[in-house]
Every structure is written in structure tokens, then in C-alpha cells.
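Data card: per-record layout.
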Amino acid sequence: MANTSAIKRGWHYDVANTKLSVYVDGTEACYYKTTGFNIGKSGSEVTYTEGTPLFNLYATCANTSSTNAQPFVVYSIMTGAGGYGGRSLFHSYTNAALTTNFMALKSYAEFGSSGAVTGLAAGFCAEMKTPNASLGGGNFYPLELEYVAGGTSTASAANAGRVGWMYMNNTGDADGDFDDNGVLFDAEGLTAGSGHLYDTSASAATGDATLKIKVNGTIKYILLSDDNGA
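The structure for this 230-residue chain is written out next.
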């Protein structure tokens, strides 16, 4: 329903700009053009309050098959040679002194008391499928972690101002079973061999095996031991 009064409410179609908008008491809450769908815009953002998200999706699924249940799907198909990007972007910005938590994206998997899984459970999954061809150039990694320093930012060796590529925290482990039985990471699908990523031919004097890594373009090896040295 179009409303051309001074205070617009409901649907409004702008013929000159080929734009379909939704107005709430004079404020353009969202709009659609052939170039995309928008909620707010740069310089005229929609205001929200803590505990009241702008967008909610509550869904339930009674799937009992092996078909993947996915309540939200985004497909981005790149068709131009020499293109760049193709990703979905979550950009959080602040110019205020915040407290203990600030993130651009959070994923959370939760089990109820009767919840279980027979295979793998994860809070976040990153996968990549390479072309069915020789990889003639570039670098292929399912996960990229990038720390971008501001022009005058200064890192500290102390807890206040410490920087790094990854932060890991064990919480809620009152009985200490994660400390007793947890592992730092689980690498599967590797075939041990001389010169392989996982090499068990290392010298007993230096270690029982190695993992191959690259540091500043040079191959290095992390030494592994079959025991904890006790």
C-alpha cells in the first residue's frame, strides 16, 4: 500500500528511482531495488537496542534422514574472469571504548541434556573444494585468519594489548575432564611418510614425528613425541 502523505507508513514505490520501500512512521525501514535489498543505509542506519535484534529467524526441523537440514542458505556464484571476493561480509565497527566482548561474527552450537551426535559436532565449519584440475597458482586454505594492525596501533607482551591469530578458552569444565582427555586439535586423513606433512621417520633423538608447516615462505617442522617425557 503506497502512502504519499508527509509521514509515510507501509509500502511506498518510488517510480523515479525504481525503488520499493517499507516506511514506519516516516522512517524508511528497508527498501528493494534491482541492485539488492537493504535495511538502512550508510549514514542513515537503522537503530536497534541490545536484546532486540533487527532480524530474527526461528526455525525447527524434524528431519530424521541424512539430508542436510539448513534453515538459511546463501549462494554466491562468481562468473567473471579476474573477479574478486564472492564472500558474505559481516562488518562490525566501533569508535567507542567497549567492555569485555566485541566480535563481527559468532556461531554457537548447543546440546540439550538428551542431545547427541554419532559423528562430528562443531561450533563452526569451514570447507573448501578445489577444482578438478591441476592447481597452477594461488594458495588454497579452508580457513584464513588475518590480523590487520591500525596505522599507529602498538601491541603489548602483557595481557592488556596482547595480539595473536587465535584465542582458545576452556569454560564450564567443572570436573576437569577436558584437561584430562582433551586435545589441542585433531588432524585426520593424513598418511605418514618421509617428507609428508605427517612424518614418522624423524630421529628418536629429536622427536618421534614431525608436522610440516610454512613460516614466511619457508618449510619448517614441529617435533612430536609419542609420550609426554615422563
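Known properties of this structure: The mean pLDDT is 87. Strands lie at 10-14, 19-24, 27-33, 36-38, 198-199, 209-215, 218-224.

See the next section for split statistics.
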